[in-house]
Each structure stands twice: as structure tokens, then as C-alpha cells.
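Data availability excerpt. The first of two example chains:
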Amino acid sequence: MNNSDSENIKSKKIAGLGFPIEKLVYSRYFIILLISIIYIGYIIIFQPLGLSEFVNINKPLYIIGYGIICAAILIINFFLLSVVLKLKKIHWLTKYSSFAVINIFEVAFFSWLYTQSFFKQDLVVNNFINHLTVVFLISVVPLFLIIFFEEKIILNKKIQIYKKYIPKEKDDQVITISSLNSNENIEIFSGQALCFKAAQNYTIVYYISGTELQKVIMRCTLKNIEEQLSNYKEFIRCHKSYIINKNNIKNIAGTSQNLKLILDKLNFNIPVSRKFSRKDITSLQ
């Protein structure tokens, strides 16, 4: 496997990053360690659930037990629960939120069982609702901050991947787009073409004429347009409903789960399919 193949495989993996929050194992362990430390720190400082009234020489060890419970649950969920949440039918925000809520609930439940087992009679306050409240207060901020920053990191990685393939030079050549109705055929320079949008059995062609954005509806499918443009490397099927001219990509926006391409002079953004394949990425070179 050559360097180009390796880079393309890496590009595909980064471009497809979704759930879980972070695919790299060491990053998962860092997140687990961070949340566990915050959990233990909160209990040591504020000593909720009546722990401030609990006097025992082994009290620090008992408190560390809460952190071990938290870490164990996060490890299990990062490596097992993530398999369930990879289902593509689930929206990315639902996945992240579900992951956070399930972890909070499980940490609260097993912390409550831990409390019941070791010092049920010694604590003034010991019920599940109180444990859930404490765990929520401890976890909700770091969990959602991690989700927010991971989202930004993944988005930045994707943007860097796609920006590498935005060419600096534009070579124009005349292209002919044929319709089922011969009187609808158009001839334009390749540099004029911005994108082709599917509209059932029709295709909307967006192109620049002079300095103005023009739109033409043609009686042919996007698949047919794709076949006609197969010899022109600048045209990429980036989405089931769009073919774009990569030479006219101006910028990339959106979230890591919902990338948008900003094309020069086009007054709307183009979505990028999450199924953007290795072949698609390679063709951007």
C-alpha cells in the first residue's frame, strides 16, 4: 500500500467520524479519567449525601470507590454502548444526548447501590433521587463541554481533509449537457458550472453567465448528468441530490455530522453525504 492509499484511507476515516465522541482509544481513556477525577473532586470538596457527617478512617477509600464506579461505567459504555448508538438512523444530537443521559443514570444508580452496600445506616441522606441529582450536577457540564469541543475538533479535521483537495488552478473547457428534449441542451465552459441538483426526473443546472447566477431545469436525471460528466474530473457527486464543480468550492461549513460546501457565487450551501466514499475522496485529487 503506497502513501497515497494510506492517506486516502485516513481521510475516509476522518471524514466519516461520527459517534462515539472520540474513536481514538487514548482519547477515550483521557475523557474517562477526566470525568472520574471531577466526580471524585466534587465529592471530596462538597461531600454531598450526608458524607460530611460520616466519620470513618477509611472514608477517603470509600470516596475513591465512587470514582472507580464512574470510570468502570464510562469504559463499558464507550466500548459497548457506542455500538448501539452507531445506528445511522439516529440523529447525531440524539446519539450524544442519549450517551450522556445513560451514563448519568447508570453512575447514579450504581453509586446508590454502592452507598446502600457500604454505609446505608451511616448517611443522613441516601436515596436514588438524591444520587441522580448529585451525579447530574457533577456530570452534565463536563459531558456536554466534551461533546461540544469534540464536535469542533472533528469538524476541523474534516474541513482540513476537504480543503486539501480544493484545487488552486481552474482549467476551462466547453462541456455539453444533453437533455431528453434536444432543445434544452446547453453548452457552457466547465468553470461556469457550479452544481447540478436532482429534482425527481429533472435536474436543475446552476451556472454563471457573465457575473449573474443562472438556473436551468433540464428533463434528465442526475444519474444521467453524472454519466455525461464522467470524463470531467472537476465534477463530483458529493451527495445523492448534488453534483458539484470542485473548482468552484469557496469554503466548507456546517458541523462534523452535517458538512456544507460553499460554492463561489451560489446563494445556498451544498450538503455532503456522510457516505462520502474513499473513491469520492480520491477523485478530488
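And the second chain:
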Amino acid sequence: MKFRVERDVLAESVAWAARSLPSRPSVPILAGLLVEAEDGQITLSGFDYETSVRVTVPAQVADAGKCLISGRLMADISKSLPNQPVDIAVDGAKAQVTCGSSRFTLQTLPTEEYPALPDLPAASGTVRSDVFAQAVAQVVTAAGREDTLPVLTGVRVEIEGSTISLLATDRYRLAIRELEWNPQSPDASAAALIPARVLSETAKAMTGTDIIVSLATPGSGDGIVGFEGEVSGGNRRATTTIIAPARRNSANAAITPPTYHSATRRSGAVSATSAARASAATIVAAATSGGTRRRAGAMLSRNSVPGGICPIAASGHSEKTSTVNNPLSAAMASGSG
């Protein structure tokens, strides 16, 4: 394999792909970055069995092929290279990186041991990248960061027709943001709980005009969500597994998957924002004990302001900043044992 690529394009692409690689992988092969060269382009891929990333950029390919190299090492090397075209050639178990007077030799890993990346689910619709990035940035600040409660470390994405609702809570605050998008089907209806970190990094990385959102629900057998978009350097896509939350029906009942869509939303008796709040209350009830639910509250604001107050921006509402104390207290207390 041998190809030439622009230094800035390579550095930006490698940095984004390597960011998703695990720092302490359970299997050493997962620390690798898969490089594939063919038909005037190169593809960089990373996968940790939960999150996959793939970026395709133009390049001058002399010899097609693929290799597996250390992702974080390649990221460190690429950002320190001079501003000149980069030549990468693979000979046996060695990869030679040349840029001007700089030369690096990397040990390759066996590509046959690298797991296959999951396929992107069928496209569900498109959303403007700038609007999506702003909405995600407003909501992820309210997501939990405690690994002991993984259900609260995600952002709930609800699709109802031409509206996407993003919700996040850490039991003490709640962030809700609604935005318009272009669904493939006008009566589209789905919900998924996506890791907040993955969603945030993906939204910031895809800076093109539109982002293609692909959602496969657990009922369809895949249980993954995918995002794909064009950037100045090429094409980027990412997939991640959906967090599978659970709900405790009673103090001694078994843990069962929750029903995401509330009866009020199905009947159309309340607005999407009200149903979103009810869904967030369900998430809180699923992950906390009764005593914690009695104490938990939420602080809501329509705009992102300093001090950790959560943003809310629902269609049809004014942009005036307001704060409501404990709007979920009744819902959470009613679910206590």
C-alpha cells in the first residue's frame, strides 16, 4: 500500500478517528486504526465493539491496500508533521510515514484480527448540522457523568414526525431541546438513548450542511444509531450502540425495559415538550431509588446560562429565560416505593 495525502487533512481525520479509540482496550487490537487505500481515497476506521467511526478523505493512491497501525501514535505523529504532503507506504510489517525531512516507522498490527465495523442502518432523515450541534451542546450539559448510573449518561432522542426532541437529566436538572428535521417518512416515530459523549463529539465533528441520522431500534435486531455527514476534508460517519435502560415496576419486581412513548403523547393530549418531561421522569425513576427520587429536583431554563442551569428551547416558546424549581418532583415521588 502506498499513497500521498495532504498533511492538514490527514491530521484532522486521524485526530477525530483516534479520539474514539479506547485508552485501555480489553483487546490490544482495538487500539489500532484501520487504514484502507483505494480509488483515489483513503478510509480511516476505529471500533471498540460499541462505537465505530469512519472517515474518508481524498488521496493520491499509488498502490491499493490496507494496514492497521496504532491510532493514538499516528495522531501524535500527524499533528507534529510539517505543512507538506504526507507519503505513507507499507512494506511487510512496517509502515513508513514521510513528510518533508521527517520520517517515522510504525509497526503494523494484523488486519485479519480486526473486527468488522457494523453497517450503517437505513437513513431515517436529515437535519442541519449547525442546528443539531447547537441543540446537542445545550442538552449534554445536563447528562449524568456517573458510570454507576449509565442510563443517566445518555441523551434521549425522540422522533415524532418532523420534530426531534433531545432530553438529558442527572436527577437534579433536566434539559430539553426540540428542533425540526426532514424525516424520510412523515409519520416517523422512534426513541433511543444515546451516550452523551458520543453524541456530543459526533455533532461537533460533522460540520457540513446536513447530517444523515440512521436509527435502528432494539426491536429490529441491531440496536444502533448512526450519523453521517460531509466535511471539508471528506465524509465522516459514526455508529454507536443504544443504551438499554431498565425500569423497576415495583419494589420487588424484576427489571424490565420501559415503554418510551407515554399514553399522553400517543393520545395527543399534551405537547411534545410535556411528553418529553414525562419521559425524562421515567428515566429518573428507572435509575434511582425511592428516597433519591423524593429529593431529586430539576432546574429548567430556556437558554443556556452560567451556573449549570439547563437549557430548554421548544418550538412555539419565547426565548425569555425562566427558572422552575422541582417540576418533576411529583412525577418522581409518585414512583417511589
